[in-house]
Design goal:
Layout: E1 3-4, E2 10-11, H1 12-32, H2 41-54, H3 58-83, H4 92-100, H5 107-122
Helix pairs in contact: 4-5
Length: 127
């Protein structure tokens, strides 16, 4: 196989080099793809999802990702809500009476403490 090299001379080695490079490129292209018959079921599902995502337009892709993020947030919020313990209810009157038994706290301070407790705890659904 005779070919011309860069300098314009007929050269047998130039043809060999070109054919070798093109053969190696074809070999790499063939080896890069995995035959679908050799995929496991799990790999096939993942491959199908990846192909579906790759074929999406920009708008579809953004919508899909935002939807997935919102779903993850709501699931996380619901899990956190399920694991959180409800706040114990506080009987403000009983608490104020108990604080009133402490020496040195008069009725004036007791009224201030009761007002603060009602302000903080009644707003949270306690009382």
């Amino acid at each position: 196989m005779w070919s011309r090299n860069n300098e314009g001379y007929s050269d047998y080695t130039a043809g060999l080099a070109i054919s070798r490079v093109s053969r190696e490129e074809r070999k790499e292209q063939r080896m890069s793809k995995k035959r679908s018959c050799r995929r496991s079921d799990n790999e096939s599902v993942i491959h199908d999802k990846a192909v579906k995502i790759r074929k999406m337009t920009d708008e579809q892709l953004v919508h899909y990702i935002e939807d997935r993020v919102e779903k993850a947030r709501s699931e996380g919020f619901n899990k956190g809500k399920a694991h959180s313990k409800p706040a114990p209810s506080v009987n403000i009157t009983a608490l104020v009476e108990e604080i009133g038994m402490v020496k040195g706290i008069g009725t004036g301070k007791l009224a201030d403490i009761k007002a603060i407790l009602e302000k903080r705890l009644v707003g949270n659904g306690n009382g």
